[in-house]
Amino acid sequence: MNKTVLLEVKDKIGYITINRPEALNALSSQVLKDLNEVLDTVEASQEIQVVIVTGAGEKSFVAGADIKEMDTMTPTEAFEYMTYANDTFSKLANLRQPSIAAINGYALGGGMELALSTDIRLGHEKILLGFPEVTLGIIPGFAGTQRMSRLIGASKAKELILTARNVKADEALSLGIINHLVPVDQLLEEAEKLAKSILKNAPLAVEKAKHVITVGVELPLQHAIRLETEAEALLFSTEDKVEGMRAFVEKRKAVFNKK
Length: 259
Ligand code: CAA
Known about the structure:
Layout: E1 5-10, E2 13-18, H1 29-44, E3 50-55, E4 60-62, H2 67-70, H3 75-93, E5 99-103, E6 106-108, H4 110-116, E7 120-124, E8 128-130, H5 144-152, H6 154-163, E9 167-168, H7 169-175, E10 180-182, H8 187-199, H9 203-216, H10 221-235, H11 239-249
Parallel strand pairs: 2-3, 3-5, 4-6, 5-7, 6-8, 7-10
Antiparallel strand pairs: 1-2, 8-9
Helix pairs in contact: 1-3, 4-5, 5-6, 9-10
Pfam families: ECH_1
Keywords: Isomerase, Lyase
Organism: Streptococcus suis
């Protein structure tokens, strides 16, 4: 059987591809399990410094949780399925490395929620985003109610979730759901450009900046600022900080070694 989630590593970028194109990359239990394992590999990798998440095929990023599998689930099984998916998506959100979603088509329900668990989202002109859950008699269950509200505000998130209205690329951009809208044939290239503009910076500083923002936005401001101050002080113990500042003084390009 083909792997439902692929991981390829090239030039410090980890490419995660949800690989179930025959079902528009819907998130079956098997996909979630494979994604969970891939994320463990990424977290432990010393080589991967940025992650790009995308969907296999031309049509779909991810068309949601697997409706055919959910069709026969008991409430207990649904609880386990949602909990496992949320643990997996939180693993992605809290990954040491920054992550970029290259949204290449439908990002519906669980697909939207997967994209919301990455740090930066790019989409092309033909994407379609939304939360169809209430048309199925359920609600977004992979943290969409929470992550979308935190991203665009509760009122706009409520409008999208309660109406189940799909959003095209230009509206997704103006709502701030995607960071950039790019031409269809340049999606991966633009995601790689963005990844490379992160890769040129000090890797430990990048990791700390991500961590402080991800954790800090959930904390009271004074605690979050303290977290930032402690992370900053820790970075003063790194060789890359010495190199970064010395390179500035010597008017040359810094060479970082992740130390
Ligand atoms: N689950 C399971 N199978 C899915 C699927 C999903 N979410 N989305 C698509 N598929 C399957 C279809 O059943 C079909 O399989 P068969 O060929 O075996 O019939 C195959 O993928 C191709 O799909 P379509 O023929 O429907 O393709 P289309 O181009 O006509 O339509 C679409 C595309 C509009 C995305 C349509 O497939 C669709 O509406 N999909 C469901 C989208 C959805 O409701 N997502 C939310 C799921 S609920 C959720 O995610 C809950 C949560 O938060 C936990």
